[in-house]
Amino acid sequence: MVYDVYTKMLGSRNLREIVEKNLDKLQEDLSVKIDKKNPDKIHAIEATGCTRFAYYERRDPLPSDNVSKISSLLGNAMRHSFGNTRGEYKVEGLSLEVNADLIIADEFVVRFEVVQTLPEVPHPRHLLYLNACLFAFNKDEGFLIYMTAEGKTVEFSVTKNNRMFEEVIRRARVLSTLLKDGKAPIVEPSELCLNCRYYERCYARKQVKDEGTGFILEEIFKPKK
Question: How many CB atoms lie within 10 A of CB 18?
Answer without folding.
Answer: 11
